[in-house]
Amino acid sequence: MGVLCYDRRHIAENARIQETYESEAEIKRRPPKKFKRDLRYAYRINREIQAPQVRLIGPNREHIGIVSLQEALEQARKANLDLVEISPNANPPVVRIVDYGKFIYEQTKKEREARRSQKLVEVKEIRLRPKTDDHDRAIKVRDARRWLEEGMKVKVRVRFRGREITYPELAMEQLQEVAKEVADIAVVEQAPNMEGQTMLMILAPKPKKAAGGQQSEVKRAEDQNP
User: Fold this and answer.
1) Class (C level, CATH) for 40-113
2) pLDDT tens digit string along 84-116?
3) C-alpha angle 156-158-160 in degrees, rounded to nearest 5
4) Which three-class secondary structure string do you get for 136-163?
5) How far is it, in rounded angstroms, from Cα 201 to Cα 198?
6) In what order do the strands lie in the sheet with 198-205?
7) Domain over 123-205 is classified CATH 1.10.240.10
């Protein structure tokens, strides 16, 4: 009877050890956790700021101008707020008088909304043959144009059959014609190249031109840290 109890305990202990090994193996297989950036430590504040001179933005977003660090700290102290370095790479660095807790809350909210608004670029595809006629190609180009106008990328693939692969120049002509017909709204993101029994080109929508000229350091810092 004693041997039986020992065996049961032995079996239970082995099962526990095996379960521990399986748990450790599962942890090793688990993909690494993605840590979110802690914005509380992303900015230098108050005495952490090292530049002797700074470009100061007041608590009401007014541009005070270039002042000494000591003067900026004094103004922040009088306003009972913090001095936050919002653009450290500017010359001189741009700092702002603000409630640091509220500032971090707004920045975190802004990043969360930016991640939410991000979307994957959809990729469509049209397929041609080395001897596709003008009419059929025009139909395919019409589809490609619609997708590009909607912000999608378009793969243009020419598929070879049999001995057609010995005439790659015909496929190149087809791809060049397609690129020419959508040149007003698209750019060639990937030049034509061979992929097995096909020749592939990738088109992307033309980037929209930014309005206005270059922004000042202060304006850029404000846009990044509203």
Assistant:
1) alpha beta
2) 998 888 889 999 999 988 988 888 888 887 777
3) 165
4) HHHHHHHHHHHHHHCCCEEEEEEECCHH
5) 10
6) 123-128, 153-159, 198-205, 186-195
7) no
